[in-house]
Amino acid sequence: MPFNPLLQKLHPYPFERMSALTKDIKPNPAYRHISLGIGEPKHPAPKLVEDALTGSLKTLAAYPATAGLPALREACAGWVQRRYGLALDAATQFLPVNGSREALFALAQTVIDPSVTPTPVVVSPNPFYQIYEGAALLAGADTAFANSDPKRNFANDWGQIDAATWARTQLVYVCSPGNPTGAVMPLSEWKMLFELSDRYGFVIASDECYSEIYFREEAPLGGLEAAAQLGRTDYRNLIILTSLSKRSNVPGMRSGFVAGDAAIIKKFLLYRTYHGSAMNPMVQMASIAAWNDEAHVVANREQYRAKFAQVMPVLTPQLDVALPDASFYLWAAVPKHIHGGDDIAFALDLLAQYNVTVLPGSLLARQAHGVNPGAGRFRMALVAETAECLEAAHRIASFVQSFA
């Protein structure tokens, strides 16, 4: 039967690869299983969001508009105003989306022109959220990667991309705060990317779904904020994507928004109208409640801060790991004396002996510029309640100590 030949280019998803690697492992039955593998928030959803959702059943009687309710776009614009001090047009510079994941994918299908020669390129960080790569490949583009540099707080080395590749680039994904590193892009890095965008004409898609989980007093710099600070108030060739999943602990709602360059938003709306991606009206009403309330976000952030404050003293004596700028991940180095620093062997042995799942870093990255920048590291998602994360941390510490 016929099918899209580009599907053959897709790589197995990291969790699919991890499942295959662990299928024959029988974890130590003395321990109950704790997963730090998937970045799925486990804190309770806010009651105000649940109430708005259940109180909107009558909205199901009509088809929702792809552009979303004006009240929802205004709530998103109001949040941007409060968070970043920026006044964007709710009617032309915002679109609600069914979570940032689907929008990250769909945006590539909107902006990539696969008919050009040579083949267009999509550039992304490395390690990276795997949707970036899948979106690029299914849009008919090639991929290129900027490796993170552990010597520079895991900043992306955009200098690894040569001029010939930049000339073919139509889209650049950035992730700040980053997954899996938790690094936040500084203004200097944004300035460099904007200058490259002006020179070569590519779109920047800024994935900012972790922006509200941070550990320092100053909130992370966002893409729109960086553009405004650099005088780019038309937000040309810039789209930011964010979500309620992490901010408000509602991953099952699949709700977020995109904002930025009005010309791109207009084309994205056209694509989405045909794609059939209008947001459920109940979810729209619940999203309005979430974006209009900050108290639950502050409480959620404090819960993560308290959790990391307990977990870090357990892990830091045993591992090369530091508190991230933001996000709920820890990006740790595998000690060289344990399986030669092999992240996959480390993760499989930890699961077998202590029944804790972590994600090997090499599964989150690609070989680029001679190295896999995720190799020798592993990601811990501290999404469960504090007691469970703390127990997992003690088990990981014991595991590392057993090799001393």
Short description:
With 404 residues, this protein is α/β, with parallel strands linked by helices.
How does the SSE layout of this entry go?
Elements (H helix, E strand, L loop, with lengths): L13 H9 L11 E2 L11 H8 L15 H15 L9 E4 L2 H12 L9 E6 L4 H8 L3 E8 L5 E2 L6 H6 E7 L11 H14 L2 E5 L15 H7 L8 E6 H4 L8 E5 L1 H14 L5 H11 L3 H21 L13 E5 L9 H12 L1 E2 L1 E2 L16 E5 L4 H16 L3
Parallel strand pairs: 1-11, 3-4, 3-6, 6-7, 7-8
Antiparallel strand pairs: 2-9, 4-5, 8-9, 10-13, 12-13
Task: Throw out a few tags for this protein.
eight-stranded mixed β-sheet; 14 helices; single chain; 404 residues; three-stranded antiparallel β-sheet; 13 strands; Aspartate Aminotransferase, domain 2; Aspartate Aminotransferase, domain 1; 39% helix; alpha/beta; 2 domains; globular
Give a verbal description of the structure.
It is a single chain. By secondary structure, the chain is α/β, with parallel strands linked by helices. The chain has 2 domains: 5-44 and 296-399, Alpha-Beta Complex (Aspartate Aminotransferase, domain 1); 58-292, Type I PLP-dependent aspartate aminotransferase-like (Major domain) (Aspartate Aminotransferase, domain 2, 3-Layer(aba) Sandwich). The chain is 39% helix and 15% strand. The protein has 14 helices and 13 strands. The protein has helices at 14-22, 47-54, 70-84, 100-111, 131-138, 163-168, 187-200, 223-229, 244-247, 262-275, 281-291, 295-315, 343-354, 386-401, and strands at 34-35, 94-97, 121-126, 142-149, 155-156, 169-175, 203-207, 238-243, 256-260, 329-333, 356-357, 359-360, 377-381. The strands form 3 sheets. Strands 2-9-8-7-6-3-4-5 form an 8-stranded mixed beta sheet, with helices on both faces. The protein has a 3-stranded antiparallel beta sheet with strand order 10-13-12. A two-stranded parallel ribbon has the order 1-11. β6, α7 and β7 form a beta-alpha-beta unit. α2 (47-54) runs antiparallel to α11 (281-291), α4 (100-111) packs across α10 and α7 packs across α8 (223-229). The chain starts with 13 loop residues before the first helix and ends with a helix. The model has no long low-confidence stretch (mean pLDDT 97).
